[in-house]
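ok, trying the design again with the full structure, not the truncated one.
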């Protein structure tokens, strides 16, 4: 008796999946994960010459969050939309820049 696979075909009878992909090259997913790990190892948050206090780390993460939010708002502004929405985005951008400037 055979089972139907997710792709609609028929699965091989008795196939357990063991050994699947053992000889295949690494895919882009594992390379992406490896790149992310490498980037985190080289990150400014892991500066070995200085051990950051919890407050310093919190300030760094907060600044990073604000910078990412600013980038997203800028991308949304480039996308356009209604004038009212663009005005809201411009006010949000001003508020984000003020918060970034206030950080140490």
């Amino acid at each position: 008796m055979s089972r139907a696979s997710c792709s609609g075909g028929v699965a091989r009878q008795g196939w357990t999946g063991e050994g699947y992909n053992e000889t295949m090259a690494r895919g882009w997913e594992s390379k992406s994960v490896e790149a992310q790990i490498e980037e985190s190892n080289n990150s400014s948050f892991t500066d070995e010459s200085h051990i950051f206090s919890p407050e310093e780390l919190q300030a760094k993460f907060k600044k990073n969050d604000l910078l990412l939010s600013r980038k997203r708002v800028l991308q949304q502004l480039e996308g356009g939309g209604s004038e009212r929405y663009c005005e809201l985005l411009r006010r949000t951008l001003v508020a984000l820049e003020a918060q970034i400037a206030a950080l140490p």
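Keeping the full-length input from now on. The first helix runs from residue 28 to 41.
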